[in-house]
Amino acid sequence: MIVNKTHLVMGKSKSERLFGHLMGVVHQDLCLNCGACAASCPWGSIKLINGRATLSGNCTACGLCYAQCPQTVTDETLIKKIFGSSFSTPLGTYKEAYSGCARNPEIRNEGQDGGIVTGLLEFLLKEELIEGAIVMDRDSEWKTQPQVAVTRREIIDSSGAKYTPGPILTATRDAVDHYLLEKMAFVGLPCQVRAIRVMESEEPVLRRITNRVELVLGLFCQHCFSYEGLFEEKLKKEMNVNPSDVVGINLAKNGSLTVKTDDSEHELSPNSIDNCIFEPCRICRDFSARFADISIGAAGTPQKYSTILIRTDKGKEIFRRAVDRGIVEAEPLEDTDPSIKDVKNQSLKKKKSAEKEIQSRREEGKSLPPKISGEL
Ligand code: SF4
Ligand code: SF4
Ligand code: SF4
């Protein structure tokens, strides 16, 4: 691969060029475990080991990993690049809002919250608008597994919330380098959507990946848990519940967690799992994946349905085609209960809670992402 190093470092201060600088993000518990740095390094020198970006090869100090890290870019920069104008609402900008579900009963039942994400991906695959989708799967122990799903079955099997983060951006590089995909969809949590948007709004060397992303689907996210905190400490050690015995998890709007095994059901109060929350989530202000083409989640709609926020022209066109082809059924969100107000309230609640935490970290001199704190 030929990389124009001069171009990569252009416009960046010397201190922003080193992998070592990225370590500031990693070592201060700000790393989202998104994998964007690993996907971006021209030399493939970064690996995510135990959820942490780690240098595992030569570093030419090009600075790309730091520039692509979603924790080093401001919201304002991204908003302008994607939407052309600024917005300041916690919910972000959207063109249309629906409540909907997949029409296919198999997908509706097996997919999350009515199967909208699964239904849309299956539609894109069938219509050959994509050759595969970047999704998050999990293993039998509930450890996240970034995946390039290229069949209908793989798409269906990867559905459902995973509750812990994983380096999904690494799969975008696999999709290009190993699967040789020309067209793909990307499904991610708000921070992961942010990461793919940073990649596509930056250096041309990354466009070999992002030019092939046809659609970005974002998932609503209240917060995640650290795998060690929830599955190893809380479930395994404290409650004697083996992760591989867990058959279902549900995170309620009030923050309580229901964990089911074949022969038991455990209700965990928000207080009892607070210390399991993935640390960077405490300062995350994006509930509804504001940078996605289409954002999807359960808030705002009845059970077995999803709220669908169409944010971009591309998202609007694809969703319209999916509705016209009878893949999804959708009605304007205002006509359903509890409606868009619920999504707005949850977005605002998350933003306020994050800002309170940011303020308190500032006062206590604790670490914050550089573009929030001006430090690092
Ligand atoms: S060579 Fe890789 S690890 Fe080094 S600064 Fe560039 S992107 Fe980062
Ligand atoms: S790009 Fe993602 S994985 Fe890499 S250091 Fe930043 S937040 Fe962590
Ligand atoms: S709360 Fe934010 S940082 Fe945490 S997993 Fe969700 S989107 Fe990512």
Describe this structure in words.
This protein is 36% helix and 19% strand. The radius of gyration is 20 Å and the shape is globular. It has 376 residues and is α+β, with helices and mostly antiparallel strands. The chain has helices at residues 5-9, 19-27, 36-40, 64-68, 75-83, 105-110, 116-126, 152-157, 169-177, 190-200, 207-210, 227-238, 270-273, 313-324, 340-364, 370-373; strands at residues 46-49, 52-55, 96-102, 132-138, 144-149, 184-188, 213-219, 246-251, 257-261, 264-268, 294-297, 306-310, 328-332. The model is unreliable at 1-16 (pLDDT under 50). The chain has an 8-stranded mixed β-sheet, with helices on both faces. It contains 16 helices and 13 strands. It folds into 3 domains: 5-73, Alpha-Beta Plaits (2-Layer Sandwich); 76-224 and 280-355, Aspartate Aminotransferase, domain 2 (3-Layer(aba) Sandwich); 227-277, Nuclear Transport Factor 2, Chain: A, CATH 3.10.450. The structure holds iron/sulfur cluster (3 copies).
Short structural summary:
The protein is of the alpha+beta class.
Brief descriptors of the model:
single chain, 376 residues, alpha+beta, Alpha-Beta Plaits, Aspartate Aminotransferase, domain 2, Nuclear Transport Factor 2, Chain: A, 3 domains, three-stranded antiparallel β-sheet, 16 helices, 13 strands, globular, disordered N terminus, binds iron/sulfur cluster, oxidoreductase activity, acting on CH or CH2 groups, with an iron-sulfur protein as acceptor, 4Fe-4S ferredoxin-type domain-containing protein, Co_F420_Hydgase/DH_bsu_N
